């Protein structure tokens, strides 16, 4: 299948060629004709599948078929959970709309709203937004959503996970009832299905698994180590392996900061990326990582979600995620686009339950070993077992709790 069989105009095909794509990805092949047909879709797709172009291209096609009349109004709203993802989508929209008369802008919190307000007032066809800033500016009557024809809810599972359900419902109430809805989610929990049922109109199901991100294709390893020795072990692995680009996941924002500082002290250029960082700091960290001036990016799950960092050779779980699905998202960042990748997890005794949950979900046994000088002290195993026995419960076993607001 080639792009020119999908029903896209010459102007968009030209932009695709300029971008260097030769064939559509599976999600693009499936989603583009359905969206052009003005149908709602419920798409199961993660980052790395080409989903952004999968919805952006047909939206540009539909909007440019009926150009704006006198004044531009927001005809398509793309909602995303994070600022980084919003900025990335905007970049994609810019690239694909090079040869069509469509204007877009992006709004998110954490930065001065005035430039955003100015652009909105000048009129745009497509608005990419995170929920908080959107509601804020709508409340200030800076923008109107009454002419929206196409709504995209990107990474819907993360939006719920980040506690945006109420905001989403409020935003849905601001839109015209007659519109096209496109929902993208990497996972389909009961809550996502419930949300989908509440506003999608006979959606076409579109599924795509990311290329090269299936767990079997990634070289995974577990190193057993005590929590207290993890920092020195990771420093050794990075230095001795001469790793030049590594993404490290921690469970908490403080953990990310702490590790980043220690790596910097050891002479490894590092940056942390998480929800407490200012937008400027996050953008700087990400561009430094992409251009090679930063070798290590330490991130929490939500901050890393949706980041377009191609071809990562190394992904490290400094701590295992307590949600087993997050393990798949994390390691899916390595070995993309045919390159081989390595995913290493540093696992202490108190994380063994998480490891078992991950192995159960991914239906595999991850090879586990120790590194000389870093083998865990067996006394800690006894202590971990005792602590577990004393509290009478195992660590949270990774079921998502949608009622709690997770902030990373
Ligand atoms: P996404 O899943 O939208 O974040 O896209 C993942 C990566 O794949 C991005 O770097 C895109 O630029 C790239 N990409 C999207 N569509 C194609 C395509 N048809 N051919 C090659 N690369 C693509």
Describe the structure.
The chain has helices at residues 10-19, 26-36, 51-65, 83-96, 114-122, 131-139, 156-161, 165-173, 190-199, 230-241, 253-265, 279-291, 301-304, 324-331, 352-362, 378-391, and strands at residues 41-44, 76-79, 104-107, 126-129, 150-153, 180-185, 204-207, 219-224, 246-249, 270-273, 296-299, 314-317, 342-347, 368-369. The protein is α/β, with parallel strands linked by helices. It has 2 domains: 3-207, 3-Layer(aba) Sandwich (Rossmann fold); 218-391, P-loop containing nucleotide triphosphate hydrolases (Rossmann fold), CATH 3.40.50. The strands form 2 sheets. Strands 3-4-2-5-6-1-7 form a 7-stranded parallel sheet, with helices on both faces. Strands 10-11-9-12-13-8-14 form a 7-stranded parallel sheet, with helices on both faces. Strand 12 (314-317), helix 14 (324-331) and strand 13 (342-347) form a beta-alpha-beta unit. Helix 2 runs parallel beside helix 3 (51-65) and helix 14 (324-331) crosses helix 15 (352-362). The longest helix has 15 residues, at 51-65. The chain binds adenosine monophosphate. Adenosine monophosphate binds at residues 21, 24-25, 28, 47-53, 308, 310.
